[in-house]
Amino acid sequence: MSTGNMNLTLQVWRQKNSKSTGKLVDYKLSDISPDMSFLEMFDVLNEQLITKGEEPVVFDHDCREGICGMCSMFINGQPHGPKDLVTTCQLHMRSFKDGDTIVVEPWRAKAFPVIKDLAVDRSAFDRVIAAGGFVSVNTGNAQDANNLPIPKSKADAAFEAAACIGCGACVATCKNASAMLFVSAKISQLALLPQGQPERYRRVQSMVAQMDEEGFGNCTNTGACEAECPKGISLENIARMNRDYLSAKFISEEEV
Amino acid sequence: MSKLNSNIPAGELTQKWTKYKSSVPLVNPANKRSLEVIVVGSGLAGASAAATLAEMGYKVKCFCFQDSPRRAHSIAAQGGINAAKNYQNDGDSTYRLFYDTIKGGDYRAREANVHRLAEVSANIIDQCVAQGVPLAREYGGLLDNRSFGGTQVQRTFYAAGQTGQQLLLGAYSALERQVGMGKVQMYTRHEMLDVVVIDGKARGIIARNLITGELERHFGHAVVLGTGGYGNVFYLSTNAMGSNVTAAWKVHKKGAFFANPCYTQIHPTCIPVSGDHQSKLTLMSESLRNDGRIWVPKKKDDTRKASDIPEDERDYYLERRYPAFGNLVPRDVASRAAKERCDAGYGVGSSKLAVYLDFKANTERYGRIEASKAGNHNPDKETCMRLGTAVIKEKYGNLFDMYAQITGENPYETPMRIYPAVHYTMGGVWVDYDLMTTIPGLYCTGEANFSDHGANRLGASALMQGLADGYFVLPYTIGSYLSKEIATKPIPTDHPAFVEAENEVKATIDKFLSINGTKSVDHFHKRLGHIMWEKCGMARNREGLTQAIQEIQDLRKEFWADVKVPGSADEFNPELEKAHRVADFIELGELMCKDALNREESCGGHFREEHQTEEGEAKRDDENFAYVAAWEYKGVSQFELHKEELNYENIKVAQRNYK
Ligand SMILES: Cc1cc2nc3c(=O)[nH]c(=O)nc-3n(C[C@H](O)[C@H](O)[C@H](O)COP(=O)(O)OP(=O)(O)OC[C@H]3O[C@@H](n4cnc5c(N)ncnc54)[C@H](O)[C@@H]3O)c2cc1C
Ligand code: SF4
Ligand code: FES
User: Does residue A1 belong to any structural domain of this protein?
Assistant: First the structure.
């Protein structure tokens, strides 16, 4: 059960800190079980490195259930690896073959500097949310929840956009390192709901401005983000955001 | 014993909170601006408190160890959140939610706290919807509900199998709004490693910047912990990898009592362990028990495939033993029943440590309803299954996908294999009615405190409690303390107490790095987990617990002599972070066993084999154990017990009966 029979070569990005330059380092692993998750395979590697007196590989992870958005490996040229709609932590070794060489790198984008090895700094996403990704309602001011019926189709669509886990795979895979999919998902969630209307145009303007300030690139509609997003966030969100952004320009100052 | 005053306001149960709120001293806006509050934790409990306190005008600093507050463990909650809205018109009320929670907790929670929780539950839903949290709705546009265990009404609000995610993103957006306005200063990738106590009051924390390794001193007029539960003491649990007890344990060692540590919740429906490589266990939400039926073969060691076992050779043991609640009995009852069947030799799967959770009957039923909606009143079986699968997919799609990902099996076709796993900790830092610990000025909220759930938490009540504490309770109760602190000037962090606390933390770090032993931190964590699961898990007895205490003490000595922590103190070093956490888990594990040994009764999640009825149900001893066990730290392996008597004035204490 526990030990398997897969032998693998890993090429892992090692970088001491944000200032140093990094490089790919080869590691051999044997007896890997196909039932292990990708991160459990890294646990095995790290256990071996520690025992040998070497420094383990630093990588981000927490829930290991595909929901916190913390894990972030670029595996064989794809964020979160080869499977569709799966995060790195939910990727299992049965998706690989005995004898494979697997290249593992960090997210790469100007707005996501490497901190160490495979861990990057994604705080730019928090700052984009802080710029407007909310409904301005203080605690204690809410009316009864059912006083505001919302068509199921709208609520479901908002939920689909809200399912974004903020992992940054969309940025990592985009040749321009654009954050449009992430930003548009939050904008869409709130634009689809009545609660989001009062600040709708103001929100899109301030979030887009912050996104630009963080150094994310432009969107050139390659669609790579949608293809790699582990939560299936749709490009339609980007179209909606662009429409709102344009509309915002035509709406008078006071209204925005 | 004078230290243990629960400070429950006088008066009639239903009026206590209302009266409290209208009589709590207020702090005027100008004074609020000069009062600083430290909130450690950005989960539901921490983020909601930090946002609300900032909205009220306090200066807030908020800390989390993840790279973003949005990634706190609350994000992983699946099934739902309770609220006494009675939207389904099925007879729900504040009283009923209060009653269900006290009963579900096996009569080991405080009446006044639980009633307050039930009272504010409805406001939580209102607040979240106002924030734009997309909770599930019916076609009429109103909010939908589902059932959870231990209740006979539908009061659980949800967002597919991602309720925690949606609620946390709501709280996170409220928090980030305050960050954007400069009213909350957010410290991500920071870990609190000690509390600073000056003249008996909590006045700040020592935190480590996890990227640079720098130790920082932060002052606060009050400190709030919303640092989550300690289920990872078992190594394998459904908690996130980083969930830990360190913040709670550090304050315990500085004087905060730790209450009911042995009350742990083992969740009945998790994906079974598949091998030694396993790093965590994955929950399959309790909501699945709405539509799934649990069974094992009637024949021992039956190796046939589930689909080859005919209906009359299946034992739906929960429906058999508990006809009134069936598959929806509370978690502790369902977990023990699964263990009982597996121990008796009826388990399934290669490990034999699993039971089936089967959706077939309900898939067919939903399919029939869908067909009938479409005008087909006599659908064939295949049509029913096809249409029904679509309904199941909409309700639980993400859970089914997760199951398929992890096991490589298709749960739409074969029943899920499930087994109980450690999930939640009811015990935690002792707090009074104000959520203040035994250290004045130090508060504790959410899963990290002990209040509200007694010896067993009902499903969908943790999210409710975390948000109740953070949005609606703490922001009021903390005023009662802070109103007396308006004259306190910020204490400079070169005060000797800050220096001393920082030096202690530094000494511990230096010690870890200098041991240079032969075994990794994980090695010790796994061994601790094994001891805890075997001897302080689903069933406990005197002999096992006594042994466990000795084994843990030995493990502690070995850890401090032979652990290997690579790297240095002044860099990003996750192994060093784990070393702190595991060192604290080891000490906590010992206290859990001592608490379990002391509690000579079975109640809720605490099952002592010596104390059971003839039918194998938990047997409480209200005469001698209707108290909260609050432990005071007195030095390594030394804890003094203080008792807070529990008085039931409004509920008649009875043997729990789900038959
Ligand atoms: C898989 C799963 C599913 C669940 N589903 C449900 C459900 O459907 N319904 C329900 O009601 N409950 C559910 N629960 C329980 C519920 O999710 C938790 O009890 C609840 O979310 C805990 O919230 P919290 O805010 O108290 O703590 P957490 O969300 O755990 O947050 C802890 C915070 O503290 C921070 N922190 C901890 N220690 C430190 C430190 N030393 N320094 C700095 N920061 C620190 C962390 O960074 C984090 O921000 C589920 C639990 C699990 C594991
Ligand atoms: S849009 Fe998708 S890829 Fe981008 S952050 Fe959200 S979940 Fe990740
Ligand atoms: S670790 Fe949480 S999404 Fe992968």
Answer: no
